[in-house]
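Write out the 3D structure for:
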Amino acid sequence: MSTPLETVSSGATVQEAASRMREEEISALVVTTDPPSIVTSTDVLAVAAEGRNPGDVPVTDVMTESVETVPPEIYLEEVAAMMTSFGIKHLPVVASDDEYVGMVSSTDVTEQLS
């Protein structure tokens, strides 16, 4: 799991999200919406591929809403099964008090299971 959890506001642009991902060397950010959403490097790439200006596109246009989350005590095998089942590469980690504590990625899973 990557900690601390990196977030971006719902008012940010795709360009701001991409810059933040590059600075932090990560490929996804939780968007601070209720319920939480996620914007990924794949979303950023889609904006570029469509010829849209990332500085003009809000993250709310491309984010995935109401993302799945996992508790910190979940087994890695369960995380891997969820990622495979849902076809996703990132899962925010949420403590029992609804506090976001980190993000687990498919890369994290692969590193630990290999």
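The radius of gyration is 14 Å.
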